[in-house]
TrEMBL record:
Keywords: Methyltransferase, Transferase. One of its GO terms (biological process) is methylation. GO terms for cellular component: cytoplasm. GO terms for molecular function: methyltransferase activity. InterPro entries: Methyltranfer_dom (IPR025714), SAM-dependent_MTases_sf (IPR029063). Pfam families: Methyltransf_32. Residues 175-311 form the Methyltransferase domain. This is Methyltransferase.
Length: 408
């Protein structure tokens, strides 16, 4: 290749170096094909511990991105043409070069489809077709435009056990797939409001196996093209080990996991979104308190196992109703989440409480969605304190916030 083309190629490579330095956590691979006449010579490099393990002409070397691209440019001098693909999660950049022209463009990441994708007898339902899911309920693949699409998201769906190895949504996982996708739909508009805030840091409290964090990681990185970083916290060493292994399998290097108690976590970076999904009883309050304490832009909680206020609250005008245990329990659930929402509003959050999934799936189906928009509201706090007095309750969220305030 002539000197003029090599010089232009090196300019494009400088852009790739900058891209790698800013986004190496989502880098996947570099593949290159050199051409002379009808002959082709292929090289391929993968991320390995901060460098790239590159194989060309039967020789494997571990290089920095700078040294690798310099070596490829030098090799190009001996050939007539070059095609190089720089792959990130969700994005491919194609550079082509010969003696006449050098060009660079983004190319669409192709969907992966199963050779059996039309075989409806193998673990796949038609949209709208009912299928028994093994737990006494029926599930359907919905006639909708999914946010987490079969094809592009196959690696993710297989890793979180939603999809079979041959590319079919498992019959007993259809309901879970629909729930996950609806979760993303409910948060999608919030992401757009945070787009201008640089790298989004998402903290998953009581993360368990982190399925929803993996799903959000895929969606933000590969669909929305946002730069993001995920932190998962759970007291269980085994689930943290499992999450780390899944992240390794998927190549999601923009994730970290810590086996620890939520109350002991001290962030070393600004937190944009705090998540809490089905954390039991007051663990939800601990996550909300952490979100408030670190001044997270957004707090999302799907509470579970409401027990705390059941044996605390009393309200004399309701005594004819509260003598019925089942009604007292249901009101306790509503009061617990209602007071959580009230505290978030007092702390300057706009709050909505909505059904996350159908109550036919589970009665614990509410999502608390809060976005920080203003300073603390003293009048709202007065109302909250008045509610505490009227109901004779001392909520865990209030207690956790006071404990952390005393440690300042």
């Amino acid at each position: 290749m002539n000197k003029q083309s090599i010089a232009k190629l090196k300019l494009f490579f400088m852009g790739l170096e900058n891209k790698y330095s800013e986004n190496n956590s989502i880098f996947k691979e570099i593949s290159v094909v050199f051409k002379t006449g009808l002959k082709t010579f292929k090289g391929r490099g993968f991320y390995e511990n901060g460098n790239i393990k590159y194989n060309f002409n039967g020789v494997t070397k571990t290089e920095s991105i700078t040294n690798l691209l310099h070596s490829i440019a030098e090799d190009a001098e001996s050939y007539e043409a070059l095609e190089l693909i720089y792959s990130e999660r969700g994005t491919n950049i194609l550079i082509t070069a010969d003696n006449k022209n050098v060009s660079m463009k983004n190319i669409e990441v192709q969907e992966v489809t199963s050779s059996k994708s039309n075989d409806k007898s193998v673990g796949q339902c038609d949209p709208g077709h009912n299928d028994y899911n093994g737990d006494g309920k029926t599930s359907t693949l919905l006639n909708r435009n999914y946010f987490i699409k079969v094809g592009k998201a196959d690696n993710l769906l297989k890793e979180i056990n939603i999809m079979t190895k041959d590319g079919k949504i498992k019959n007993d996982k259809i309901r879970k797939y629909n729930q996950i996708d609806h979760y993303v739909e409910l948060l999608d508009g919030i992401f757009d409001k945070l787009e201008t805030r640089g790298t989004l840091t998402i903290l998953d409290c009581g993360c368990g196996k982190s399925y929803l964090s993996f799903v959000l990681n895929y969606y933000l990185t590969e669909v929305k093209k946002f730069k993001c970083h995920f932190i998962g916290i759970d007291y269980s060493e085994s689930v943290i080990k499992s999450s780390r292994k899944m992240a390794e399998n998927l190549g999601y290097r923009n994730m970290e996991f810590h086996a620890m108690d939520i109350k002991d976590y001290i962030p070393n970076r600004d937190i944009n979104i705090v998540l809490s999904l089905h954390a039991c009883d007051t663990a939800t309050d601990m996550a909300l308190a952490l979100g408030i304490r670190v001044e997270s832009d957004v707090i999302i909680a799907v509470p579970c196992c409401h027990r705390e206020l059941l044996n605390q609250y009393s309200y004399e005008p309701f005594s004819p109703v509260l003598k019925h245990g089942i009604l007292k329990a249901r009101i306790a659930d509503a009061l617990t989440d209602g007071m959580r929402a009230a505290m978030l509003e007092a702390k300057g959050y706009d709050v909505s409480v909505l059904e996350y999934i159908s109550p036919l799936e589970t009665p614990k189906n509410l999502m608390i969605r809060a976005m920080k928009t203003k300073d603390e509201n003293p009048k709202a706090m007065e109302k909250y304190l008045g509610l505490m007095q009227s109901l004779n309750v001392y909520p865990a969220l209030y207690k956790f916030l006071n404990e952390w305030e005393s440690l300042k």
